[in-house]
Amino acid sequence: MNNSKKNSESVSLISYGITHSNIHYQLSPSQLHAITLEKKMGKEASSGALAVNTGEFTGRSPKDRFIVKDAITTDNVWWGDINIPFEPSNFDVLHEKVIAYLNDKELYVRDCYACADHNYRMDIRVINEYPWSNLFAYNMFIRPTHEELKHFDPEWTVINAPGFRANPEVDGTRQHNFAILNFTRKIVLIGGTGYTGEIKKGIFSALNFILPFQKTTLPMHCSANVGATGETAIFFGLSGTGKTTLSTDRSRKLIGDDEHGWNNENAVFNFEGGCYAKVINLSSESEPEIFHAIKKGALLENVVLDENGTVDYTDTSITQNTRVSYPIYHIENVQRPSLGKNPKNIFFLTADAFGVLPPISKLTPSQAAYHFISGYTAKVAGTEAGVIAPIPSFSACFGAPFMPLHPAKYAEMLSQKMKNAEVNVWLVNTGWTGGPYGVGTRMKLKYTRAMINAVLNGDLGLYDYDHYHIHSVFGVAQPRECPGVPTSVLSPRTTWNDDEAYYTAAFKLTNAFRENFKKFEAFASEEIRRGGPQRYAF
Ligand code: ATP
Ligand code: MN
């Protein structure tokens, strides 16, 4: 469908119903940067990056993410409180209202695409109300070449109107903000929120529905990198567990930061063209690659700057979820194009705030399937006065909010691919050690990196009794030694100095695993169930 006229400088949006707008097409990052400053919508940081506040929302709003229930989705989406249905007629009315709202605005339009493997390429047109949101689209999606742009035919459209407010009483939304996927019309409609993550996660969710049907390609919420000998590693994990941090490693080439496909031609490909890193407590010492990627072209969100434009990364007065987006080429060591062979190692990252999971352990295929379906991490509440107990958090496939199909579909595909590729799967606790949140401390980044490098360099010793200890509660294989990591750190029980308290906490967590797994029991094979923890409290 070629539903719009364009040349390299301009585009007509008449076919979208937008008639009178002042439209800026395909502006460069520096133009968008300059316009944002001119309109006083952002500030320039001393590093040259643009810094904006995203407004009321500084994170995604999962309760306001809907999928239009239509002929394509009705029988295929796993409906519930994650994939919330939306009436097609409500969508049509709301869509018209958003278009009317945008019709007298200056707009920023970008043509770009997702999926570095051209067999899966999805051409996208992003229509933004704000110039800086369009810079985000430049940074995060793949940038077509001049030649590719000549024949560009957008398949999906993202319509992004942060200033528009829905009226829940008549529009069918929960409140004034919304992000709605429409598979029939191929539109991601976002309103009432300026949080940029909704833009990329909208397209990710669409791909997560489409790709499993196309040549059984598995979409994954993971980062990926490749070593000097060409061996790929991928890192699954929920928000804040370390996907971005750990995949950005100077000794390995970065394939991608957050979203990948694993195709049937034995390759992993990045969906995106950029990275979206958390910057809370960022320092040039501990994370030099990310720190130095924050230069002209990068877009900082919700950070606090002093009068000289210096960012205080420890300041969380706006949000804990301070972020930066930058195009992947801001990182020095990257794989071009963003493709890798079948992974040799898969890491499941979890930030266990109970401090009971081993910092690294090897999983059997059963355990890998069980942990993938469970998708465990822990949430720590605010860091203000008083210690607030952590909450276990389970999110199937380490990304339930973006997975429209039943988790079993993704889990089956992953199990099959893991078997074919003979990969090793590791569970890595990037969370607490020496006790739970409030008592212990977060695992040192340098230790986690050392453990991962030991796996990737083959330095962990043979997988046998001499080198591994089977954890009595979780049943996972814990290495006894690891170069660069004090031996005591490898055993969480030892770091606690209180066996009884440790086991009490461990059983609490295994009970939470069991409780969560109940909803998957009906379809889980005996093999998958065997992968759960070995002991529970009664
Ligand atoms: P998202 O899905 O939201 O993008 P993510 O999995 O990419 O999340 P990161 O952005 O890598 O998560 O965030 C991990 C945070 O935890 C970073 O701020 C990092 O500095 C911090 N951190 C502290 N200790 C560790 C550790 N041992 N391993 C990994 N990250 C750690
Ligand atoms: Mn990330």
Notes on the structure:
- With 538 residues, the protein is an alpha/beta fold.
- The protein has two domains: 19-217 and 277-330, 3-Layer(aba) Sandwich (Phosphoenolpyruvate Carboxykinase, domain 1); 343-379 and 399-531, Phosphoenolpyruvate Carboxykinase, domain 3, CATH 3.90.228.
- Helices cover 26% and strands 24% of the residues.
- The strands form eight sheets. An eight-stranded mixed sheet has the order 1-6-7-8-10-9-4-5, with helices on both faces. A six-stranded mixed sheet has the order 14-12-13-23-27-24. A five-stranded mixed sheet has the order 2-3-18-21-17.
- The structure holds adenosine-5'-triphosphate (ATP) and manganese (II) ion.
- Manganese (II) ion (MN) binds at residues 243-244, 257-258, 276.
Fraction of residues in H or I helices: 25-40%
Q: CATH homologous superfamily name of the largest domain?
A: Phosphoenolpyruvate Carboxykinase, domain 1
> Uncertain regions: pLDDT < 50 for 5+ in a row?
none
Q: What is the 3D shape?
A: globular
Q: How many structural units, i.e. domains?
A: 2
Q: How large a portion of the residues is in β-strands, by DSSP E? A: 15-25%
Structural class assignment: alpha/beta
> Which ligands occur here?
adenosine-5'-triphosphate, manganese (II) ion
The total count of helices amounts to: 15
Protein name: Phosphoenolpyruvate carboxykinase (ATP)
Binding site for ATP: 201, 221, 237-245, 287, 323, 448
GO molecular function: ATP binding; kinase activity; metal ion binding; phosphoenolpyruvate carboxykinase (ATP) activity
Catalytic activity: oxaloacetate + ATP = phosphoenolpyruvate + ADP + CO2
